[in-house]
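Archive maintenance. Older records in this collection stored only the sequence; we are now back-filling the structure field for every entry so that each record is complete. The fields below show one back-filled record exactly as it appears after the update. Entries are processed alphabetically, and EcsC family protein is next in the queue.

ARCHIVE ENTRY
Title: EcsC family protein
Organism field: Romboutsia faecis
Length field: 242
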Amino acid sequence: MNDYESNAKQELIKWKKKMRKKPSIIERGTNKAQGKFNDLLPQKYHEIMTVAIKSMVKAVLFGYKYITKKPYTDLTLEERENLVKEKTKIYKKTAMIEGAGTGAGGFLIGLADFPLLLGIKVKLLYDISAIYGYDVRDYKERIYILNIMEIAFSSKEHRKTVFEQMENWGEYTNTLPSDINDFDWKKFQQEYRDYLDLAKFFQLMPGIGAVVGLCVNGNLIEKLSETAIFAYRMRYNEINKL
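Back-filled structure field:
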C-alpha cells in the first residue's frame, strides 16, 4: 500500500463512521419542516420534479447504451481519482452555467433546471464508474449509481439504510431481482426532492435565481463527486484488501 492509498483508506474509515451515524433530533425536526414546506410549493413544481426524476431513473436503467464508456484498466487508485477530479471540474462548470442560465429566466424557465441538472449528474456518474473500472452494461452497476445519488441527496435516516446496502454490496446484489423494473423509483424521487426542494426553490425567484442556480448547482456536483469517490473506494478497498 502506497502513501496515497493509505491516506485514502483513513479518509474512507472516517466517511463510513459519518454514514453510520443516526440522525440527530435537529435533523429529524428538519425533515418534518421539509414535509410542511413541500405542501406550500406549486402543483406544477411537483409535477415537473416527479416526471424529471422518473425520466432520469429510466435513463440510468435503460439508456446506458448511448452514453457508456469502456471501463478504464491498469490504473492506480491515485490515477483514477485524479481523472475523477478533472471530470468533476468540467461537469461542475457545465452545471453552474446551466443553473445560472435557467435561474435568470424566472419560474417557468427555472423549472427546466431540474431535468437538465439530473442529466449532468447521471453522465458524471457514468464517467466515474468507468474510471474506476466498472462496466455499466451490468444493470447492477447502474443500481449502484442510483445508490450513490441516494446517499448524496437524501435524508440521513434513508442514507444510512442505503449505505448499509452498499457496504455489503456483494451480498446485496444476490438479493436483487432479475427484473430491473422492480426498482423503487418512487421512494428515490421523494428522498431526492426533499433534499433539494428548499435550495432549488429560491432559484425560481426573480432577481436572485441566477446567483442561486450557479452556486447551488456547483455545490451539488461537488457533493456528488465526493460521495462517488468514497463509494468506489469501498469497493477498491474490499477487492485489494487495503
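Update note: Residues 209-240 form the longest helix (32 residues). The chain has a mean pLDDT of 76.
Entry marked complete.
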